[in-house]
Amino acid sequence: MSEFPFKRADLEVLRQWDTPTICNGLELVVPERRALGYTVEPVVAADRKLPPIIGLARTGLIRAKERPRGPIPPREDWYEYVAATGDLPTIAVIQDIDDRPGFGAFWGEVQSTVHHALGVAGCVTNGSFRDLDVLAPGFQLLGGRVGPSHAHVHMVQMRCDVNVFGMLCNHDDVIHADYHGAVVIPAEAVTKLPAAIELIARREKVIIDMARTPGFTSAKMREALRRAGEIH
């Protein structure tokens, strides 16, 4: 079993912030990743009201437009692979490699229920999902679109590198996601993020408070920026 420089409690702390805030913190902690490691296309959330999800990536490639062209990973092997690792939750990160991603939906009532029971927090995919009214409660799906059929959907490969809406992801990457999109958090950054986010919040508060003050002017904005220090 892999060793990680964080515990479940450290991941849970990061759920209090939305994904844009996590990205802000990463700009301080790992500035070299400022322009990589996150989704760059719009995502569709199954339920915008659900809180952020975070967990270890379990990756796979799927197709749906045609029947399998050869041997495919057994579904039970995928379930064994994607299940929560010890005390740490997982997130399925699945790339649909059809020429038209989302032609068939891998996710719906059955898969959301099974994965949720296995300790999977949710899924990030460029593919589609369905059964919106009967998805497992609390299981978040972030995908490319909603569609009615699963067509010939099947797993092509698992535990592999994937690219979901520009987010390059590998097995065991830490993923934080909400209706804004998803981001990879380097393992060593997990415990450093809370302090970085709190620092950014203090800097932002100086600017926001000044902007909300009666008689706000550009001159006062200059003063607020000076007091706040470097931000964004």
Structure overview:
By secondary structure, the protein is of the alpha/beta class. It has 2 domains: about 10-190, Glucose Oxidase, domain 1 (3-Layer(bba) Sandwich); about 195-230, no CATH class. The protein is built from 6 helices and 13 strands. The strands form 3 sheets. Strands 1, 2, 3, 5, 7, 9, 12 and 13 form an 8-stranded mixed beta sheet that branches. β10 (about 160-165) and β11 form a beta hairpin. The model has no long low-confidence stretch (mean pLDDT about 95).
Task: Name a few traits of the molecule.
single chain; 232 residues; alpha/beta; Glucose Oxidase, domain 1; 2 domains; three-stranded parallel β-sheet; 13 strands; 25% strand; elongated
Secondary-structure blueprint:
Layout lengths: L7 H7 L4 H11 L14 E2 L7 E11 L11 H8 L7 E7 L8 E3 L1 H9 L2 E6 L2 E2 L10 E4 L1 E2 L7 E5 L3 E3 L2 E3 L4 E5 L2 E5 L7 H19 L6 H11 L4
Parallel strand pairs: 2-3, 3-5, 4-6, 5-7, 6-8
Antiparallel strand pairs: 1-7, 2-9, 2-12, 10-11, 12-13
Helix pairs in contact: 2-5, 5-6
Largest sheet: 8 strands, mixed
Broad shape: elongated
CATH hierarchy: architecture of the largest domain: 3-Layer(bba) Sandwich
CATH fold topology of the largest domain: Glucose Oxidase, domain 1
- CATH class of the largest domain equals Alpha Beta
- Which secondary-structure class do the elements indicate? alpha/beta
Helix percent band: 25-40%
Order of helices and strands: HHEEHEEHEEEEEEEEEHH
- The CATH superfamily of the largest domain is known as Ribonuclease E inhibitor RraA/RraA-like
The N- to C-terminal Cα distance equals 38 Å
Overall mean confidence score, pLDDT: 94
- Number of DSSP strands? 13
> Which segments are poorly predicted (pLDDT under 50) over 5 or more consecutive residues?
none
User: How much strand content do the residues show?
Assistant: 25-35%
